[in-house]
Amino acid sequence: MTTTTAPTSLPGLTFGGIVTSEWVKLRSLRSTIWCYALIIVVTLGLGLILAGTLNTGGVTPPAADQQALWLSASTLGIQLGVLISAVLGALVITGEYGTGMIRSTITAVPTRTPALMAKALVFAVVTFVVGFISELATALVTVPLFAARGIHPDFGDSHAWLVMLGGAGYLTLMGLIALALGTIIRNSAGGIAASLGLILVVPSIFAIFAGLTRAEWANDISKYLPSNAGSQMFNPYQASMTGQFEQWQGTLVVLAWVVVLMLGAVALLKRRDV
């Protein structure tokens, strides 16, 4: 009986080639089209609803409040869109385990880490672009509705662009957290459940516990949960009022979650049999 060993790499294989391969995989998934379409529809729909039903009582809000209302409409859909991003983030890796395609991926990239990094890079870029375009489109289409209520957004406000960039970034980072969890769990249902649980269930548990026990430490810890810290990435106007993180602080917290979970995913991907 003879044994064979896997090659260290395929001839001519580069990281750029791996990225191209992952791009082909992502756009060929039916779930990709549906999830990104839903993010766009949800962002536009919720923004239009908020702008169309806003009642100022005939009083023109101050300029700062006008800008905040406009940005709230532009980014409102991100809170729901992040759930869709998490589902897709888990599916892009667990789908390969479910179909067995992961074996081909590992055969082509025996070191494994570049394959995961390329997948994360492609997913991150596409998700960020879709998220930002969704917010920008919502910002544009809601202008006439706000103008009818005496609200005139300022597109020249650099702070407003930071808010929308933060919203797209939050959408992307939470999807990457789901991708890392999917790599760790290697099961679609488990990866999605863990991701949505971290986003929805865990913060609720801390909030209920803090409300019942008045424990300050529970509130302090909950600030570091990815969904709570990440909400400040596109909601910086309320940071000083709520005692939460500033925009850049929330971004760093969510980035830390991504890095830690990705390191765990890489370690397990390299150690475990496929």
Report on the structure:
It is globular and about 65 Å long. It has one domain (16-50, 62-271). It contains 13 helices and no strands. Helix 8 crosses helix 9. It has helices spanning 15-28, 30-53, 63-75, 78-99, 101-108, 113-141, 143-147, 158-185, 188-213, 216-222, 226-231, 239-242, 247-271. The protein is mostly helical.
Judged by helices, strands and strand pairing, the structural class is mainly alpha
Mean pLDDT: 90
Number of strands: 0
- Rg, rounded, reads 21 Å
Low-confidence stretches: 1-9
Approximate shape:
globular
| Terminal Cα span | 23 Å
Q: Determine the fraction of residues in helical runs and give it as a percent range.
A: over 70%
N-to-C SSE string, H for helix and E for strand: HHHHHHHHHHHHH
The number of helical runs is 13
Percent of residues in beta strands?
A: under 5%
Biggest sheet descriptor: none
Total domain modules = 1
